[in-house]
Design goal:
single chain, about 400 residues, alpha+beta, seven-stranded mixed β-sheet, six-stranded mixed β-sheet, about 25% strand
Length: about 400
């Protein structure tokens, strides 16, 4: 594995057969106007586009869809599905770009009822991306910080299921979540999402009624959802937050994150190694054998901030054929698999064309452009207790 220095020309550090990265924070900072981040993103993208034989996990154009909640939530809506009577969908939402908007009218038009969860439009790049609020009535709309998405809050008995995806493998981890809430004359609740759904979270918002029966996600429904998301997003490394609605038992996916921490997923590095080996197996036979024989197959996530030490951390690593410490010539032969959708460098996915979205405002926001999200899920009292993780093949 080779750590890439984003302050140096990448062409002098290669060639490479595969690059593994997490550049979401740099992408978001570049969009916000940070000059170093813009230059770093440009250098990386220019290098990738100039290497037609290079595999990138994951393509930058695909990753960008998850840095903007408006775009991401539109894609989520389009991935709704039903399997064996279990409906999987995403909650209704509207995007509010600025304070000129009649917010109450926008919510009514978007069929979004109170309570609503307001989330920053930018999903990565700073702590502000995780600063959210729950609004219970029209008077609370004055607390909205724009630009944002206003998503219908769905009662789910304070349980969240994080679905971690690595290629064709996924794993479900149960986490605490926000307790059941109802509309009314309540003050707006402000919170940081990082404080809510960690395994060790202890927050008044996550206190459950002990009489409530937990729900167990339907594995077949989750598997179908993961397949649809992989195809739509053209990504191999992401996480999906899923809740099960109280009463209806429908599975609702409320957020997607690129390259999450995979905390609680056993065998994460084995799965990541397998994904990289699968990608590299697309090389012509002679190159594949040389690469797998001569390269350390255990991936290591390396951090590179580049520039100032206080810059937001991003992860970028590269797998390269190495012999006696010398980088060898990269391969130009690639192949693809229907089960592992991929954007080749320089291509624009069909998903890159933004669908019609519920966006309200004057359209002058610098952020890139995003609705609804029923099931015969099963009360856990009728099934085995939910385990800390459920492994599956997508």
């Amino acid at each position: 594995m080779v750590l890439l220095d984003l302050d140096r020309p990448l062409k002098n550090q290669g060639p490479f057969d595969l690059v593994l990265h997490k550049l979401t924070d740099i992408m978001a900072a570049a969009t916000a106007g940070d000059e170093w981040s813009r230059q770093a993103e440009d250098r990386v993208e220019t290098y990738f586009k100039g290497q037609p034989g290079l595999t990138v996990l994951d393509p930058l154009d695909a990753v960008r869809t998850l840095t903007d909640r408006n775009v991401c939530y539109n894609l989520m809506r389009d991935c709704s599905c039903t399997h064996a009577g279990v409906e999987t969908s995403s909650p209704d939402f509207v995007t509010i770009l600025d304070d000129t908007v009649d917010k109450a009218a926008a919510l009514r038009e978007g069929s979004v009822d109170f309570p609503v969860v307001c989330k920053p439009l930018v999903a990565h790049g700073s702590d502000l991306a995780h600063k959210m609020c729950i609004i219970f009535n029209e008077d609370g709309l004055k607390d909205i910080q724009t630009p944002c998405v206003a998503q219908q809050f769905v009662n789910h008995n304070a349980l969240l299921f994080k679905v971690f995806v690595i290629g064709d493998t996924h794993h479900i981890v149960q986490r605490p979540s926000i307790k059941n809430l109802e509309a009314g004359e309540h003050k707006t609740i402000f919170f940081d999402s990082h404080d809510i759904s960690k395994a060790t979270s202890d927050n008044y918002l996550t206190q459950r009624d002990g009489k409530l029966s937990p729900y167990r996600p339907n594995e077949d429904a989750i598997s179908l959802l993961v397949k649809r998301l992989r195809k739509s997003l053209s990504l191999a490394l992401f996480g999906v937050d899923v809740i099960i609605e109280r009463g209806t038992f429908r599975h609702m996916f409320i957020d997607i994150n690129y390259f999450p921490g995979y905390d609680g997923m056993p065998g994460m590095f084995d799965a990541l190694t397998q994904l990289m080996q699968t990608e590299l197996s697309c090389l012509e036979p002679s190159r594949k054998k040389a690469l797998l024989d001569e390269t350390d197959s255990q991936p290591v996530l390396l951090s590179s901030t580049g520039g100032d030490s206080d810059r937001s951390e991003s992860h970028i690593a590269a797998a390269a054929p190495v012999q006696n410490g010398v980088l060898r010539e990269k391969s130009e032969t690639r192949c693809s698999s229907e089960s592992s959708p991929r954007l080749t460098n320089g291509e624009v996915s069909k998903n890159g064309v933004l669908p019609h979205s519920s966006v309200v405002g004057d359209g002058n926001s610098d952020a890139v452009t995003s609705k609804r999200g029923v099931s015969n899920g099963h009360p856990a009292s009728d099934l085995e207790p939910v385990q800390s993780g459920i492994k599956g093949k997508s």
